[in-house]
């Protein structure tokens, strides 16, 4: 039996190298999508998001960019496919033999297929993570923008020139709030599934998951912004760190009152205005706004 199959091993190997990548990608992506549909966790965001300025133009530009990439890929595969169409009918499959070089190339190709497939799966998970984060930031931004009616200036996605950005900065009448938005899927459905407790140092989500990194991150960003504004304006300005959790019902514990960090659902951002601080001088407020504007890069034609 083995003697009968041996002459066909090279042909089977070559055909596997031709079709295995496509079949493997289709199978794995399908299984991953099925697993995502069966995931019991749900996004806590239920409200419709309003379109940002230029949203439709950005979507159309992204679609055109994807179309360009698809055309580039098509151009790259036309040559190899034409070569295969010309050469494969001329191959004497029964006389084809593999030496050590052919086996090395075949094994390296299989290894590359496995590595690239694993990378693709990680990229799909990362893409899903960033898309959820983007939706959460848009929801927070639209809620924070309502503070403009109370005399606040609101900035989004503020670059720092470092390896991080500031999701949102609100310049209020009496303080500056740096808002770090976090997205987290809630565990299932039902009453209490979107509850989160905050004790001033850590967040405890429904299901028992705890997070203190978001609090520390907001504190670090507030410290950086306070130092930056002091250097730009020459005066100290209170910068309050805030963790925004769109779609979550934040239940502050009594000890939260002593914390410098605030945790809110951004729909309740108006609560930030009730801090009892003295008003910032208008001239200093103008300097703060100008300092934040300077952080954005100059747009090039």
Provide the succession of SSEs: HHEHHEEEEEEEHEEEH
What does the average pLDDT come to?
Answer: 79
| Uncertain residue segments | 1-5
Helix/strand/pairing class, anyone? alpha/beta
CATH top-level class of the largest domain? Alpha Beta
User: In total, how many beta strands?
Assistant: 11
Indicate the CATH topology of the largest domain: Trna Endonuclease, Chain: A, domain 1
Cα end-to-end separation: 70 Å
Give a quick summary of the entry.
This protein has six helices and eleven strands. It is of the alpha/beta class and 301 residues long.
Walk me through the topology:
Layout: H1 2-5, H2 9-38, E1 41-42, H3 55-87, H4 100-144, E2 153-159, E3 165-171, E4 176-181, E5 186-187, E6 195-198, E7 203-205, E8 210-211, H5 213-233, E9 239-244, E10 249-252, E11 262-264, H6 282-295
Parallel strand pairs: 4-9, 6-10, 9-11
Antiparallel strand pairs: 1-5, 2-3, 3-4, 6-7, 7-8
Helix pairs in contact: 2-4
Pfam families: NERD
InterPro entries: NERD
Protein name: NERD domain-containing protein
Overview of the structural elements:
Strands 2-3-4-9-11 form a five-stranded mixed β-sheet. The protein has a four-stranded mixed β-sheet with strand order 8-7-6-10. By secondary structure, the protein is of the alpha/beta class. It is built from six helices and eleven strands. The chain folds into two domains: 2-140, no CATH class; 144-295, Trna Endonuclease, Chain: A, domain 1 (3-Layer(aba) Sandwich). It has helices at 2-5, 9-38, 55-87, 100-144, 213-233, 282-295, and strands spanning 41-42, 153-159, 165-171, 176-181, 186-187, 195-198, 203-205, 210-211, 239-244, 249-252, 262-264. Helices cover 49% and strands 15% of the residues. Strand 2 (153-159) and strand 3 (165-171) form a beta hairpin.
């Amino acid at each position: 039996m083995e003697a009968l199959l041996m002459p066909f091993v090279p042909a089977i190997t070559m055909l596997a190298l031709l079709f295995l990548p496509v079949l493997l990608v289709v199978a794995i992506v399908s299984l991953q999508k099925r697993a995502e549909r069966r995931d019991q966790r749900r996004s806590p965001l239920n409200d419709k998001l309003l379109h940002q300025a230029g949203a439709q133009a950005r979507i159309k530009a992204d679609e055109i960019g994807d179309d360009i990439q698809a055309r580039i890929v098509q151009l790259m595969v036309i040559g190899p496919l034409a070569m295969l169409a010309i050469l494969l009918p001329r191959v004497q499959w029964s006389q084809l033999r593999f030496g050590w070089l052919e086996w090395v190339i075949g094994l390296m190709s299989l290894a590359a297929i496995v590595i690239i497939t694993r990378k693709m799966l990680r990229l799909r998970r990362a893409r899903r993570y960033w898309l959820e984060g983007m939706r959460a930031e848009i929801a927070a931004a639209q809620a924070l923008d309502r503070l403009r009616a109370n005399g606040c200036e609101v900035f989004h996605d503020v670059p720092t020139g470092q390896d991080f950005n500031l999701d949102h900065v609100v310049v209020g009448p009496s303080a500056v709030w740096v808002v770090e938005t976090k997205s987290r899927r809630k565990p299932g459905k039902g009453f209490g599934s979107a509850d989160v407790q905050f004790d001033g140092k850590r967040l405890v989500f429904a299901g028992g998951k705890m997070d203190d990194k978001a609090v520390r991150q907001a504190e670090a960003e507030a410290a950086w912004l306070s130092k930056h504004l002091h250097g730009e304006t020459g005066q100290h300005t209170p910068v309050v760190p805030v963790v925004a959790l769109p779609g979550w019902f934040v239940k502050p514990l009594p000890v939260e009152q002593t914390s410098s960090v605030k945790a809110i659902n951004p729909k309740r951002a108006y609560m930030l205005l009730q801090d009892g601080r003295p008003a910032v001088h208008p001239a200093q407020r103008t300097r703060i706004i100008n300092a934040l504007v300077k952080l954005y890069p100059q747009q090039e034609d």
